[in-house]
Write a structure and sequence with these properties.
Oligomer: single chain
CATH superfamily of the largest domain: EIF_2_alpha
Largest sheet: 5 strands, antiparallel
CATH class of the largest domain: Alpha Beta
Structural class: alpha+beta
Number of strands: 5
Radius of gyration: 34 Å
Distance between the termini: 24 Å
């Protein structure tokens, strides 16, 4: 066997094991190959597998391997939660007054799903390109148009009220974005630019609070999940290599 290749394969073993048995194993491997009892490929496979087994024994013999991996999982979970904080949601409400020119009997003024047609139209207008574009300079933090559309959701809690929910990394950002979209909508439908006619709309309730999972709770939950996964992986590694080591001893 090539000396350089042999040194590389022996370097895969734990240092303590290599210092004690490396020379003997190297000599035995060369003798077996020279005698034709094993092939070069078989020798490489055996040495690589033996290195993996010895490292597994090192892990399995450590009383703290499960705890160490669990701590690593906890740290990874906390770092992930800190880099990806949960988004908070804030809501602004706008009250509508349907123009008399479009008022119809209730039976003729609903969609197939039973929703008020006028309100549905206003929801579409609030989420439209010109409304969001006008709100863009006032949202927090500064974002692209696609980002704003992704962070905003329009709904209607009742037939004469529409809502805009905005997401943000903190309460101030979520509130500012929700209010910016609501004000942009009110300005748009109150002007002659509105393609559906002028609509009397006013801010019923500004976005002043934000809801969602607080960051400390997210750190605790994600970190705990990481610790649990780490403990499971550590236990699995210790058990697997311990089992492999027993099989190896029996086979010998």
């Amino acid at each position: 066997m090539n000396r350089h290749l042999l040194r590389v394969l022996l370097a895969l073993y734990p240092r303590a094991w290599r210092d004690r048995y490396g020379a003997e194993l190297g000599g035995l491997t060369e003798d077996l190959i020279s005698a034709g009892e094993i092939t070069l490929l078989a020798a490489v496979v055996n040495l690589t597998g033996g290195a993996a087994l010895e490292w597994g024994r090192v892990l399995a013999d450590s009383r703290f391997v499960v705890g160490e991996v669990a701590v690593a999982g906890l740290a990874a979970g906390i770092v992930f939660a800190a880099l990806h904080p949960p988004l908070l949601t804030s809501t602004a409400l706008v009250a509508l007054q349907e123009p008399a020119s479009v008022q119809q009997p209730a039976s003729n003024n609903t969609t197939a799903g039973g929703t008020d047609a006028f309100t549905v139209t206003q929801e579409v207008v609030m989420g439209s390109y010109p409304v969001l574009l006008d709100a863009l300079p006032h949202v927090r933090p500064a974002m692209s148009f696609d980002g704003l559309r992704h962070n905003v959701q329009v709904g209607s809690p009742s037939s004469d009220i529409i809502s805009v929910n905005a997401k943000g990394k903190n309460a101030a950002d979520a509130e500012a974005t929700a209010n910016a979209v609501a004000k942009s909508y009110i300005s748009y439908v109150s002007s002659s630019r509105s393609p559906v006619g002028r609509v009397e709309a006013q801010m019923l309730e500004s976005a002043t609070i934000a809801t969602g999972r607080p960051l400390p709770a997210s750190l605790l939950i994600t970190g705990g999940f990481g610790a649990l996964c780490g403990a499971i992986v550590g236990a699995a590694v210790a058990l697997a290599f311990g089992w492999a080591d027993r099989r190896f001893r029996i086979s010998r």
